[in-house]
Write a structure and sequence with these properties.
7-stranded mixed β-sheet, 15 strands, globular
Length: about 425
C-alpha cells in the first residue's frame, strides 16, 4: 500500500481539521534512538519527537522491556483498585515536583491534565475566572480551548470559563518589546495589577514557562515569580503548564517554572508528553488541600493504567540515571549557538530563541517584521528532503520552526541536523 492510498483512506474517515504535515504526508513506521523511518524506507533525524513526546529515544530498550513485562502481567484495572506502578510513579513525581505536601493525579494527556487543573482551581477558589497568557496553548478540550490565547488553535469562543489574557509570554513582540528585561517585567506586572482591579477575583493564572505551540517563546526569567507575588496577595493560584517544558528539556532546570522560582513553587503543575516517551501519560501535581478540594466522586478509567505507569517509571529512571537534563543543557547549548551562527546571514530569520533542546527559529519576510508562514512550510519541506523532521508553531501566523529532539541527542547528531537545517533555510532564500 502506498502513502497516497493511506492518505485517501485517512481523508475518508478522519476529520478535515486533523492536520497533517507536508504536501505528501509521510507514514512513520519505526524508529531507533534519534532516527525514524517512513514506509518507503527513508531515514530521518527526528528533531520533533512526536511533538516533544519521545523525550529520551525511539524504541528505548528500558521502556520497551518495562512495557512488555507489565503487559504480560496486567495492562489495566482502573483507579478503583490499588495500583503499585501508579503509586511508585506518583511518589517519584511528588518528590521531584518541588511542591510541598504534593498529591498526584494521572490522566491520559496534557489536555486532560490542564482540564483537571482548571476544575481544581475553580472549585478551590469558587471562581470561574481564569487568567491566561496571550499566545498560549493548553489543549483541545472545551475548557482548554476556552483559555488558549492562540487564534490558530481556538475553534470556538464558547467556554465554561471567563478568561482574561495577560501580557508577557512573548518577549520580542507586543507593546513592551522595546523595553529592557527589568522594565518589561515591571510593565507586565503593572498590567496584571491593573487588570485585577477591574474584575472579580480570578481562580488562577495558567502559564507555560516556555510557550510550546506559540513558537517556543518565553518572558525574561523571573516574570512569573513577580506575577506570583501579586497573585499570592490575593489568594489567586498559579498553574504551571509543564506539558512541554518538564523533565529537564530546558537544560538549565528540571521544570520550566524553576526559572521563576524566587517566589516559591506553583500551586499546581501539569505534565504529560515526555514522561511516557510516547505512551499516553498526563497528570497534575498540587498541594494536598487543593487536590483534595473536590467533594464528589472522581476516578480515571485510563489515567494511571499499569502499562503506561511502567513506561513512565522506566523512562524517568533512564532520564535521571543518564543525566539527560545535563545533556540537554550541553548539546542544546551547542545547537542553539550553531543555529544562531548559521542563520546570522539569512535575512528571513528574525530570531533563534529557546534553551536546552527546546529551540524556536522565527521566520519573517526579509526586510520586514512580518511573519512568513509560507517560508516556515517551505523550510519544513526542504528539511524533510534533507532527512530532518521539524515542527512548526507561532502566534498570529505559524512562522516559527520548532526544534525539540530527544534529550539523548549527540553532538554529532546536533551538528548533522544544524547542517541540514542551514541548507533548508538557504534553499528558500
Amino acid at each position: 500500500m502506498t502513502d497516497k492510498d493511506l492518505l485517501g483512506r485517512h481523508r475518508n474517515v478522519l476529520p478535515d481539521w486533523l492536520a497533517l504535515y507536508y504536501r505528501d504526508p509521510l507514514e512513520i513506521t519505526h524508529g531507533e534512538g534519534r532516527h525514524v523511518w517512513d514506509a518507503a524506507g527513508n531515514k530521518y533525524l527526528d528533531f520533533f519527537g512526536g511533538i516533544l513526546t519521545t523525550m529520551t529515544a525511539h524504541a528505548l530498550p528500558e521502556v520497551t522491556k518495562a512495557v512488555s513485562e507489565q503487559a504480560g502481567r496486567i495492562i489495566h484495572s482502573s483507579t478503583l483498585y490499588l495500583n503499585r506502578p501508579m503509586v511508585e510513579l506518583a511518589e517519584r513525581i511528588s518528590q521531584l515536583s518541588g511542591i510541598p505536601d504534593a498529591r498526584v493525579f494521572f490522566t491520559t494527556s496534557g489536555t486532560e491534565a490542564n482540564d483537571t487543573a482548571l476544575m481544581l482551581a475553580t472549585t478551590y477558589r469558587r471562581s470561574n475566572t481564569i487568567l491566561a497568557m496571550r499566545n498560549s496553548y493548553h489543549g483541545r478540550s472545551f475548557s482548554a480551548v476556552g483559555i488558549t490565547g492562540n487564534r490558530g488553535w481556538s475553534p470556538t469562543s464558547l467556554s465554561p470559563l471567563q478568561t482574561l489574557y495577560v501580557h508577557g509570554g512573548v518577549r520580542t513582540r507586543g507593546p513592551y518589546a522595546s523595553l529592557g528585561d527589568d522594565e518589561f517585567v515591571a510593565a507586565c506586572v503593572d498590567d496584571l495589577t491593573d487588570l485585577l482591579g477591574h474584575t472579580r477575583p480570578p481562580a488562577a493564572l495558567i502559564a507555560e514557562p516556555i510557550q510550546g505551540v506559540g513558537g517556543f517563546t518565553s518572558p525574561p526569567d523571573g516574570l512569573y515569580a513577580a506575577f506570583r507575588e501579586v497573585l499570592a496577595e490575593r489568594g489567586i493560584l498559579w498553574i504551571a503548564d509543564e506539558v512541554q517544558t518538564g523533565w529537564g528539556r530546558t537544560g538549565e532546570h528540571f521544570w520550566g517554572w524553576q526559572a521563576h522560582a524566587s517566589s516559591g513553587p506553583p500551586d499546581i503543575v501539569t505534565f504529560a508528553k515526555g514522561i511516557g516517551n510516547g505512551m499516553s501519560i498526563g497528570g497534575v501535581v498540587a498541594r494536598a488541600e487543593i487536590m483534595n478540594c473536590l467533594d464528589a466522586n472522581s476516578i480515571s478509567t485510563f489515567g494511571g493504567t499499569q502499562v503506561t505507569m511502567a513506561a513512565g517509571l522506566a523512562n524517568l529512571s533512564y532520564l535521571l540515571e543518564h543525566d539527560l537534563q545535563g545533556n540537554a543543557r550541553r548539546v542544546g547549548g551547542l545547537l542553539i549557538e550553531r543555529l544562531r551562527a548559521v542563520t546570522a546571514q539569512i535575512p528571513g530569520v528574525r530570531e533563534v530563541r529557546g534553551r536546552g533542546l527546546m529551540i524556536g527559529i522565527e521566520l519573517v519576510r526579509p526586510g520586514t517584521d512580518q511573519a512568513d508562514p509560507d517560508a516556515a512550510s517551505a523550510v519544513l519541506e526542504a528539511a524533510r528532503e534533507g532527512g530532518l523532521l521539524l515542527g512548526k508553531g507561532g502566534g498570529h501566523n505559524t512562522s516559527a520552526l520548532r526544534v525539540a529532539p530527544p534529550l539523548s541527542l549527540t553532538v554529532a547528531e546536533a551538528e548533522e541536523g544544524a547542517a541540514i537545517l542551514e541548507n533548508a533555510l538557504r534553499s528558500i532564500q
